[in-house]
Design brief:
By secondary structure, the protein is an alpha/beta fold. It is 47% helix and 12% strand. It contains 22 helices and 17 strands. The strands form 5 sheets. Strands 3-2-1-6-9 form a 5-stranded mixed beta sheet. A 5-stranded parallel beta sheet has the order 11-10-12-16-17, sandwiched between helices. It has a 3-stranded antiparallel beta sheet with strand order 13-14-15. A hairpin with a 5-residue loop joins strand 7 and strand 8. It is globular.
């Protein structure tokens, strides 16, 4: 009976994934549709865990990831001209470009309206309300135009089936043979949550995440099964969730107040036998594939010993890196190495110290935020320069040069424009941004962006000073080993069921970068400069010594240095 149920759920899940793969990334999506798509995958994972079939559990967890994103990451995106007639391709592109130009122009008008002094408060508020409405409509048109292009590209080319249990499992084994980490892949369902763990000895462990009575008291939950609602309450709930409290923590003592919950989460999320291996030093590297509310949880902050002085997972010398999907990680790992002809003459590119829109001379009247679309626009009218941006770039360049990396290129101040970034990233092995950024909780963060210096024509959507997530995915980063973002909140954005946290970090991965370094929330400029510089120093030491750079290990060492 269980196998028959599995067959039915497989058929339903396959049908839903096929339907979604033709609609394009950034499509409007209702809560009801999310639940319909999510239900068969949760049931499949539950069945495979009951069958004690780790390979099939792993396959179901992976196949639930958004097919559009996987297709883009695997570089199966055909050209538009190869899929449709020239007239139709021209019409689709023209519609897309017009929608992008409209969004850019309205965003600029809103910025200027916020700092206008020739309008009364009432007139200004009315103008902002009208422009905000028009911006919402323009963004919807942009999303529809983008979705039409993606659907036209993909409809004639079905998503390659890389979900074969045997193939995917074997690919993972090959990668693990090279890296030998502990893999922790999570699946958070509405009622149940699961962990697939593959330790260094290669014997997979599948387990359901539950809460004991003792743990329930600390987390203020009911004992029993751990589902999405429970994890959201503990991790992401505004004001009193762990993420919110960690962001507001101003001292070690403040973080220490969270130790009981962080300690319980360590015990809930990682089985005891694996915790013992971590604490004993047998495991030195973790690959974490989070899901649901866990996607923004910094596992480094989990408490491994609550006795004073409190010890966190970051203190154990374990290097950690995260991936939205094992498939994505494998696809990136298998990309070919560039030849000398494909590399830029200067492998390092530093971008930052941007010149933002100047603030108004007079104090702005506090106006209510009329819609999420206006959030970054209002901030854009008053972007303040980052005090340590120039220092960060100079320090980083000096560190790299001291370690033998003489060929460093710069894009700073008036040169740090979108157009210049787009024209200078190809062939770089290491790219660093030191500027501002923002995420948007609408349209799957397509309009979230890295803020750069506006170009000469601020009405040009490809040079308006906002390198959006949609534009990031189109950058030529196929040979880039690492993009580091000394930018606020680059790895954050509300999570969508089945599609993960579509952050700016994720956009760079889709563009071809093998690795990303970002932040989950706002961090002090000075601390960021120190961390990035020490991280780059450790990397440069490895490269100068002729070693293959271990990025996760260098970041772990930099974090340990910051805590000493």
């Amino acid at each position: 009976m269980l196998e028959e149920a599995v067959a039915d759920f497989e058929s339903a899940a396959k049908h839903e994934n096929k339907r979604l793969s033709l609609t394009g990334w950034g499509r409007p999506q209702t809560t009801a549709l999310q639940f319909v798509v999510y239900q068969p995958w949760e049931a499949l994972v539950d069945c495979y865990v009951q069958l004690s079939a780790p390979e099939r559990t792993f396959s179901a967890m992976e196949r639930y990831r958004d097919p559009i994103l996987l297709r883009m990451a695997e570089r199966f995106v055909p050209s538009l001209a190869a899929q449709v007639a020239p007239a139709e391709a021209f019409e689709l592109r023209q519609r897309y470009e017009q929608a992008a130009a409209c969004v850019s122009a309205l965003r600029r008008q809103l910025e200027l309206t916020f700092v206008r002094t020739d309008l009364s408060p009432e007139a200004r508020q009315q103008t902002i309300a009208q422009l905000t409405k028009e911006l919402d409509e323009a963004q919807f048109a942009y999303v529809q135009a983008r979705s039409s292009i993606l659907a036209a590209k993909f409809v004639a080319q079905p998503l390659a089936d890389r979900s074969s249990q045997q193939t995917l499992w074997e690919e993972l084994r090959k990668l693990r043979a090279e890296e030998n980490p502990l893999l922790l892949e999570y699946f958070v369902g509405e009622e149940n949550s699961y962990l697939l763990a593959v330790p260094p000895d290669g014997k997979p462990i599948t387990t359901e995440l539950t809460i004991s009575e003792e743990h329930a008291k600390v987390l203020a939950l009911r004992p029993g099964k751990l589902g999405r609602r429970e994890l959201f309450k503990v991790v992401q709930k505004p004001e009193d969730g762990l993420l919110s409290q960690l962001q507001q923590a101003s001292s070690e003592d403040h973080i220490g107040n969270l130790a009981p919950k962080l300690g319980v989460l360590f015990e809930v999320l990682i089985p005891e036998e694996l915790r013992l291996q971590i604490l004993s030093g047998q495991i030195r590297q973790l690959v974490i594939v989070p899901h649901g509310p866990l996607q923004l949880l910094p596992f480094e902050a989990l408490v491994v010993d609550r006795a004073l002085p409190i010890r966190f997972l970051v203190d154990m010398g374990v290097s950690i890196f995260y991936s939205p999907s094992v498939k994505l990680m494998l696809a990136i790992h298998q990309r070919k190495e560039p030849g000398e002809a494909e590399l830029a003459k200067q492998p390092v590119l530093l971008v930052g110290d941007c010149q933002f829109q100047p603030a108004a001379a007079t104090e702005l009247r506090e106006l209510p935020l009329l819609s999420p679309s206006a959030a970054h626009v209002r901030a854009g009218a008053r972007w303040a320069a980052l005090p340590y941006a120039s220092f960060a770039l100079e320090w980083l360049a000096s560190v790299l040069r001291e370690r033998g990396a003489q060929r460093v290129a710069w894009l700073r101040r008036e040169l740090a424009t979108e157009r210049n970034v787009r024209g200078n990233v190809a062939g770089r092995r290491f790219i660093h941004f030191a500027t501002r950024a923002f995420a948007e909780d609408r349209w799957r963060n397509l309009f979230g962006a890295i803020v750069l210096t506006p170009g000469a024509r601020k009405d040009d959507p490809r040079d308006d000073g906002y390198l959006t997530l949609a534009e990031i995915t189109e950058l030529p980063l196929s040979f880039c080993d690492l993009v580091a973002l000394s930018v606020y909140s680059t790895n954050t954005e509300p999570e969508h069921q089945g599609e993960g946290c579509q952050s700016l970090v994720y956009g760079f991965l889709l563009a071809g970068a093998r690795r990303m370094l970002g932040s989950n929330w706002m961090v002090p400029d000075e601390s960021t400069v120190r961390l990035i510089s020490v991280f780059a120093d450790y990397l440069a030491q490895q490269i100068k010594a002729g070693q293959c750079p271990n990025y996760a290990r260098a970041l772990s060492q930099a974090k340990s240095w910051m805590r000493t």
